[in-house]
Amino acid sequence: MALRPLVVIPDSILREPSKPLERVDEDVRALAKDMLETMYDAPGIGLAAIQVAEPVRMLTIDLSREGEERDPHVFINPEIVARGDDFSTYEEGCLSIPDYYAEVERPASVTVNYIDLEGRQQTMEADGLMATCLQHEIDHLNGVLFIDHISRLKREMVVKKFKKLAKERGGTRLAI
Ligand code: NI
């Protein structure tokens, strides 16, 4: 296992749609392990493969709290097949937008079809934090960030701040 560097805004790779995985092989399992290790190290509760510069449709999520036993979930080719009628609001953050948090309203429950690490088709009915986290991470697979769900003014402010930081450290792919 290895830690992977995290991609942060304004790196334009975060805006690319990720491709479905065609099979679950050793490479996919190795990437999932690296993603979990990177997510735990950060620390974060969710990570999309694109955030470690791998444009494939895979997510890792672990909502266990500090001191609790770990509860890793890996979702391959996840797809939202149903959304509940109610909405909930959480203060969201993102490992690709460090130290920035904002309230985002999303459907309070979702049903997600996905493939697990053994290559089996699965369905999860999620609510609460899991529902929000799944929607946040699946957004990543479509090149969407949580700041796309906040006001344009707030979004422009945070993007401007990260563009300035990237310029200062001589960042590359400057577009978002
Ligand atoms: Ni994120």
Overview of this protein structure:
- The protein is of the alpha+beta class.
- It has one domain (7-175): Peptide Deformylase (Alpha-Beta Complex), CATH 3.90.45.10.
- It is 27% helix and 29% strand.
- The protein contains 3 helices and 7 strands.
- The protein has helices spanning 26-41, 128-141, 152-168, and strands spanning 46-48, 58-61, 73-83, 87-94, 97-107, 109-115, 121-127.
- The strands form 2 sheets. A 5-stranded antiparallel sheet has the order 1-2-3-6-7. A two-stranded antiparallel ribbon has the order 4-5.
- The longest helix has 17 residues, at 152-168.
- It is globular, with a radius of gyration of 16 Å.
- It binds nickel (II) ion (NI).
- The site of nickel (II) ion has 5 residues, from helix 2.
Structure characteristics:
27% helix; 176 residues; alpha+beta; binds nickel (II) ion; Peptide Deformylase; single chain; 3 helices; five-stranded antiparallel sheet
List the helices and strands and how they pair.
Layout: H1 26-41, E1 46-48, E2 58-61, E3 73-83, E4 87-94, E5 97-107, E6 109-115, E7 121-127, H2 128-141, H3 152-168
Antiparallel strand pairs: 1-2, 2-3, 3-6, 4-5, 6-7
Based on secondary structure, the structural category is: alpha+beta
Count of helix runs? 3
Question: Radius of gyration from the CA trace?
Answer: 16 Å
User: Would you identify the CATH H-level superfamily?
Assistant: Peptide deformylase
Mean pLDDT: 95
Biggest sheet layout: 5 strands, antiparallel
Q: Can you list the ligands bound to this structure?
A: nickel (II) ion
Residues in helix, % = 25-40%
- CATH fold annotation: Peptide Deformylase
The CATH class: Alpha Beta
